[in-house]
Specification:
Shape: elongated
Helix content: 10-25%
Mean pLDDT: 83
CATH class: Mainly Beta
Length: 98
Amino acid sequence: MADEREFGVKSDGSRSEMEAVLDVKLEVSAVLGTAEMPISQILKLGRGAVVELERSVGEDIELHANNQLIAKGEVIVVDGRLGVTVTDVIKSPSGHEV
């Protein structure tokens, strides 16, 4: 049963309907914050420039899939690399979790 839920494989070894979506590509982004700047100011930014974001340290970041908010999370460091841990899954307007 777990195989079907996680991998799209039925207990008899055949593939389930889930197989159709297993290879669908999805653009996922973690939004640390946003800022509005005129293009002229952006063009003046150089290496090491700091851009102030509209979010405070410690606030949850937003996780988007195909430009739609799906969850909130926190930035973590694992083996010297940045990652995100999901803290809250956002329910869709229909009331179902995404």
